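Appendix B. One record, verbatim.
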Amino acid sequence: MARRPSEEKLREYENLKRFLVHWLTHVSPWPGLDLSDPIHPLNVLASFERKLPFSQVLSGLKQAVNDSLEGTEDWTSDRIQRADASLEAVGAPSLSLLLTRQSKQFRRIIRRGRIANNSEFYLVSAALADTVSARSAEELAALSAMLAAYEARA
């Protein structure tokens, strides 16, 4: 029998879900993808909630949120502020808060020198695919090595 998730994990899930729902319905909806479409990310999340263990659904939700954050690297500060206000109005974490958390998590991975889980794997993968941010050759090499080592372990 599966253990009940901790209150902290349940709160984290609810906050991230509130963010993703508002993000995909009000802040940055996917053009050409109707909310009634079964492949819409919110419908996929609902399907996962019915079929998968909580820990896997939380991991997938984190990845979906990180994917949403990836598309904001070229946003202006004004656009970020408007998104923050909209998200905060519905009780969701702000874009600025999530970007700050992501940045801190990324720095922890670099300091540690290895990837610990799938969420970190996707964060590092996205960083390597990001051609907008200026990363040194040394940092790119270190990230690539961490990614390869994680893939070898998995």
